[in-house]
Amino acid sequence: MTKGNKKTTEIKKTAKAAAKKDSKSTKKTVAAKTTKTSKSKETKPIKALTAVFVVGGSQVIASTGEEVTVDNISAQKGDKIDFDKVLLIKNGDDIVLGNPYINKSVVKAEVVATKKGPKVEAMKYKAKSRYRRRWGYRPNLVRFVVKEIVA
After folding, report:
1. In the chain, where are the structural domains located?
2. CA 115 to CA 83: how far, in whole Å?
3. Can you say how many angstroms the Cα of residue 10 is from the centroid of all Cα atoms in its chain?
4. Global pTM value
C-alpha cells in the first residue's frame, strides 16, 4: 500500500465517526423536542375541511378559505365556480374517499383574479436536417378562494 491509500482510509474512518456522532446528537435533540411537546398541554387548533378535487385535468388539495392558482379553466374575476369532481374529503381524523368521486359533494369557490403566467417555451429539433421550430405561450392562470366544501 502507498501513503495515499492510507490517507484516504483514514479520512473515510474519520468521516464515518463524525457521521455517527451527528446521528446520535440529532436523535437526542429529537427525543428532547418530543418530550417537551408531550409535557406541555397545548390545545390543537381545529382544522377546517380539506378536499382533493379535480380542476382542469389536475388534482388540487385545498381547505376552506385557501387561495389556489390553476390553469386550464375559463373564468372571469367574480365568477362563482362549483367543482363536483371531489376525490377525497378530510375532516379532522374522518376521511371520506370516493370511488372515483364522492356523490353529492361539491367544492364551492369564487374567482379572485386572472392573469397570465410565466412564459412556457418549447422546441423541436432534428439533427442533420436543419429543422428547428421554437414556440412559446403564456398560460392563463386563475386564482380562486375555496368558500365552502359540501360533503
Report:
1. 1-42, 50-150
2. 21
3. 43
4. 0.62
